[in-house]
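Need tokens for this chain, all 721 residues.
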Amino acid sequence: MTERVDQRVREDRSPLDPAVLAGAEVFARSWATAVIGSSYVPMTRAEVAQHLQDLTELLVAALFAKPFRTAPGHEIGSRLVDAHFTGTDTLGRTVQLLGDDLLADLGFPGDERLTSRLAALQGALAAGYARALRERTLAEQEAIRAAVLDARDQAESMLRASEARFRAMFTEAAIGIGIADIDGRILDVNQALQDMLGFSVDEMRQYNVRDLMHPEDAGSVWRLYDQLIAGECDHYRAEKRFHRADGEQVWTHLTLSLVRDDHGEPQYQVAMIEDVTDRHLLQNRLRYQALHDPLTGLPNRALFLERLGRVFNNRAKHVRAGLCYLDLDGFKVINDSLGHDTGDQLLVEVGRRLDQSVSGEGKLVARMGGDEFVILVEGSSGEQDIVEVADRVLTALEAPIRIAGHELSVSASIGIVERQLSGTTSADLMRDADITLYWAKADGKARWALYDPERNAREVARFTLSATMPRALERGEFYVEYQPLVRLEDSTVTGVEALVRWQHPEFGRLAPDRFIELAEETGLIVPLGRWVLRKACEEARRWLEEFGDSAPFVSVNLAVRQSRDPELVRDVKQILDECSLPPHHLQLELTESAIMGTADEPLEALRALCDMGVRIAIDDFGTGYSNLAYLKHLPVHELKIAGSFMEGLRAENEEDPVDSQIVATLVQLAHALSLGVTAEGVETPAQAARLLRLGCDTGQGWFFARPGPPENIDSLLRGDL
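Here are the structure tokens for all 721 residues:
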């Protein structure tokens, strides 16, 4: 924390700068004015001013120190106590004055980095002050307790002297002291306790100790008290509240001790009470700042996680809870275009609307950071409860927000999780809400998405495949199947398409639609495609050696990322050379959208492959946007018509006239450009006959053969099937 803050502090000023020193003097005078009179200090006004000037210089030096340390804050708090600045208002006035005036007097108003350092030093000062005051108090307490014990143990001749010493300490002590008998009747209180509670001695003597119980006292306070008066313990300490005579509350640190008689039986109880109200209020203020977002005032991530943890710790059987994880759509654009100040004001207004629209017991709205908010609903009765909350939030954000002359429209994406708490954890709830938030964004934004365990399982499986894919290639889990390309005129196998498969050890046999997209995303498509190309060329060479002129060419799919690989031409040539395969026995297939959108450099690679003798085919033709004028200039040999157009030609007795006309048009177009035509998805004899009539050259589909091992192609070529 210290090093991170130090790195942000501006380096253009130092505590020796005359302007900084002048500001320090101004602040020291203000400090002296604020605290003089709040404590009895054995110094003249000039000495007080000089003492506080020294402390101010120490504080300023610490504020600019490298590396930044909070130890000087502890020292300043301790020196205040040593100088007897121990009045009930001194610490509060000091902390407030530091926060309000110091940076302004030094010439750094609004500096967030110095503000962060100052806050740390304020906390350290309060801690040092409290520790020094506690040490002083404990020393006084020990002296008083010793005096009480001395009064019991001293001989009769020393009783008056002991009583005098005790009375002096009892009267002059800075902390409140009260004495009661074993039945709880208050016998005497000193002046400090009278001032603390606002009651006189006579008024206090009308009370029993149990009359001072506060309705919000911890049960342990009075259990320990019962043990003490029973003689089971000699003293205990606790933090306790008291009601003052004016109705206000006083927070105190209570030390209660037992005084026994000569026979060891409980006789008196002595209470030593330190007023810690200022410290308690400061701690509450610092805790509030630590647990709330300074921009929106909403609970922050720390408070939300604390509340969520409490929900899970106190959960009963069948208790349910829900989360709405919310992220603003397009907030970065607003920040980047209109500035961070506008973005901050937008977040403040969004936080206000969320707080207004989601109210009631058991609901908490928190800002997680940036433009992310979360809503916790405790004790929900089902998913509909949380959906209603999400709908209210989306409605609350519909109205435009006016900021600095701009009318801004803002929407949000919300991930919703609602479930029974038994059998899950807070981390599970947060993870699933975060996942669902990104589903909402992926589904179109300005909406909510409900957690779906089946969808999540698919996403997890997808991630698992992505993570294991690189090693799968090394372990030989991929293999290639082949499907014949059959000439429709005489049913001759002219080519085969190589189709990669993955035999996953956990998920079994996987078709390309399960992993090719992942391979594209991870970049593995290039080495995987190179491996498939080599395997296909090796099989093609084997068929060429065995079947000679009847051997089919092999067609290999080329992904978009492969087509843009600068090593594509070199790799293809190297594989063809190593396999001794003539280039015209290899066909590379690219999708229509990929080849039509190919840039100049990848297009040059395709032309180089074409010049080499490799066949180029457009796969799934007719499903994308085709620039027909551009098509005639491409290095293409074959069009493969998408299988979706084959459905209307499948029926035995009739055909779809639209699909029939589309196929006929595509065939005419391809032949006009001197391109061959392959129809994909041929499944029935009627389809094959109609495609032949429409002029298709080649067919591919289950009617001829399903994809299978290379041995199936061997049987087809031999005529065994």
